[in-house]
Amino acid sequence: MKIVILDDWENCFRNNPLLKTLENKHDVTVYNDKPGNNEVINRLKNADIVIPIRERTKFTKELLNEVKNLKMIAQTGSGTAHIDIEEAERLNISVRSTTGGHKSVVELIFGFILAFNKKIIGLHEEMKDGQWPELLVDGLEKKTIGIIGLGKIGSGVAKIAKAFDMRVVAWGPRLTEERALKEGVEYLSFEELLRESDFITVNVRLVPETKDLIGEKQFNLMKPGAFFLNTSRGEIVNEKALIRALQEKWIGGAGLDVFVNEPLPAQHPLRSLQNVILSPHIGWKTDTVFNLFLSESIQNIEEFLRIEEQRSLS
After folding, report:
1. In this model, does residue 10 exceed pLDDT 90?
2. Is-above-0.85 flag for pTM?
């Protein structure tokens, strides 16, 4: 089989010893840069299997119809919003995902929370400037954290929040009160969560029903001092509403790892706001996660090929 690793970020797969497992059995080509639309077609024109890095390349209906030999998309991470799944099914292209880097994302969420609550960034800059600022900072004990989406990331957030002795509340489009109770979390309605939370973290998947889930109406329900976090997908939050909420101090601040347009444009309004902490979609980017991506992708490929072989013999 001809396997293409489409955009090996920072050569994480190329430098991984596990890659030999694939190379010993298959014809493997590794690219380490993000291709343009025409270049994607060129790279995949003879490929049987593609391993894309997360959602850096969109597999549109048009693209899928151009790559005639493609039999499998071995997706890294759990997100598939960038793949036209319906068209892939029609073309008999198998799409298989790995688990995501949920533990790493949970770590980043609390990095944002602590940086905001302890005013770490501002105090650091003042200290570097020769000052010795004296002010009160806040603790997390008894504060309320509202988790939107109680999947692997949301559940991980809940676990750590409870260790900080925070009140943990949750809501999700499909979350039930019974499921929340099993996680030891208080279930609230969407509006109640927005009104009562000191910290609000978005941890739902991007699907049609969650696009623009958070807009002006939702920001207006939040506490004036609330800290809003999005480490999921930029499109879940209406960006214009978010910018207005930050500019007009409807909320206390935001921690953002994801954006509607990535990379975030150099002159984007979010870059100039003082009450926002930004990171370049790094929540999932760790050596551990990339090792997991490759090992699970190899497992998915081997399973796919076993099934295909069985079909050919039946």
Report:
1. no
2. yes
